[in-house]
Amino acid sequence: MPAFRQVGEKQLPNPVLCMAWSPKRDLIALANTAGELLLHRLASFQRVWSLPPTERTGKEITALAWRPDGKTLAFSLGDTKQIVLCGVEKAEILHVFPVQSAVTCMHWMEVVDESSSLSSFYSSEDESKLFLPKIPTLPKSDFFFFFPCRLNVLVLGGDSGFVELYAYGMYKIAAVDGVTGTCRNLCLSSDLRSLSVIAEVRSADNNPEICYIQLDTGLLSDCLPEVTRMALKFTFISTLLQYLHLSLTCMCEAWEDILMQMDLRLTKFVQEKNTSTQVQDEFLELLLWGQSSPELQALLMNQLTVKGLKKLGQSIESSYSSIQKLVISHLQSGSEALLYHLSEVRGMSLWRQKFEPLGLDSAAIEGAITAVGSFSLKANELLQVIDKSMKNFKAFFRWLYVAMLRMCDEHVPPELNKMTQKDIAFVADFLSEHFSELFDRKGKYFNVERVGQYLKDEDEDLMSPPNTKGNQWLKFLEESTHLKESPLLFPSYPQKSLHFVKRMMEGVIQHCLQKPAEVIGKSVKQAAFVPLYTVPERWNDKKAKMHNVVFCMPEVSPSKFYLLRKETHSNRWDCWELRYVYSCLDARFYDDDILTVVLQACEEQSGWRGLAQLPLSSSLSCGTDFSWQLDQQSSTIPCQTLFPGTQWRELENMKAQFVAVNGIRKVACVLSSNVRHIRVFEMDVEDEEDEGLESLNASADQDGLETSGPRRGPAEENPETDGESKGDRGGALQKTEEHLESEEALKVP
Hints:
The chain is α+β, with helices and mostly antiparallel strands.
């Protein structure tokens, strides 16, 4: 009776590049060559959702990692060099950030610490809720707010020794130096004391060599409470920066191109008219005397038109109202929250004994607070410009609408025909201030609309900065020698746009956030460098705080494993040589005591392949201190022969090559060598059906897959010829049983 129960099988249309089981649920994530991210359920391998590639993210997925709570999935993109955090419930992109190098491997772990200080910290409520109003959600956006949870760290590895650590998958807490080559796999211990990296380096003769590198991350472990608090605050800050960026994007979308019609028409009018009079003079004549030149009348009646003027007025009012609401409800509330969290970080930095070793610089944080204050001032300035523009345009369009109706000899509504002397003076001031001709290298132009210049992402100064003449506060500051250079006052940058001040603020805050990552990264030291051969898997034993590495040398001895074990807080290494009667194609740690392997018969003419669970606890009872000279110490390494017992299963009609396991959910997923054929197993359940009947059903299922599955390409193997005949498989199985029986007979006393 075969072990494990097969619960799903499928032929996929695109080759699979990466696969990873959810740590909490019966879900497996797959990334294929088409750039799709697929989520499948264990039951019948049913697809839950599919996330297609986009221009914003990219289409070359290189690695996958689940957040320890199973609610978020991270994946890296090689073509755009970005990391994407995706919500599992709705397949929505939560966060995107760039990296310097293409990522080749990822590992997301949760910190395990039983200290009372962290336990009370996790259980305490966020005090910012007591002082800050609730930040409103963004319209038409998938943006999410970060909610505090236990500290977890996303570890990224890539080309040229690229290794970075991100707290909560968002804030970079360490940029590690000292790693050479391309990272193949990595693992951070649950106590943050050690980081293990499997890297491919080039030897002196330019041959690829697989090496094991252990890095000492003791600073993170020694300062764990401080790291947790700092990471939590900086993650809040990173989230708020993204919120402000998306809010400004919504404001730019609310500003419409139709608002530029008045400027464009006036510019064209100046270029075509033959008179020497200025535009504002012609409008003033129309205001005071009710008369206009033929050119101005043609502009108003033929180009602008009464209907167009009414539509323009409605568009300006609607657009300005939307922008005003976004500034008040989103920009101002986001800036207040950002200022609050930065002020708390500044207080942390003043506790030098605790936080100075982590790189918190109070001067840099004060600069970030000043930059946020300048951004808030610029947002308030935009509000004043919007409020003034709405009043000016409303009065101007009301007057111009009546004037154009009179030109057409149409009836003027009585409520619009009344205009006081105060209204006339208001419109006259608006014409003299906004309808003056401006000059640049392209010639004359007009800038009647003053809001759009604040939303342009340019380094140039504002075309029409606000008029500060008569401002008593600015006059008082200029005359006061004590307040002029006071650090308590935020600079306002009256000549710059809101986008420019926002980018300046982001640069200052990013510099503030990067310094701790640089300091912590420089504290990481290399503890061991071990040349290996080929390494399919590594594992972190959370309970015993161990780093385990399993590897094999297929060209030297394909039926042998080497298992290396080291405590995270000790320099002692133990090594075991594990023998098996088959060659290993792939291996994954099912849990701390069991190794899941994909096996192949050693005979070249045999196509037998199987899935097995190898118990390690009985084999690792004795170890030896090891100095990493495999060729010299091979005779002194303890040798153990592994027996799967009943925990194995033949994989019929499948060239199995790779396996992904989840010991918590007790499931495994086997992938064929053509990376399209997948089988899913429940590992702790034995199949209740008869072997012969199961073989018959497997063949029938395979026929169904061939009929309903996608058309096979030239590189895809035929499932019918994927395995050998039953006779060959039976022979291989018989040899296996005979060999195991002889080994067991030798052990009997």
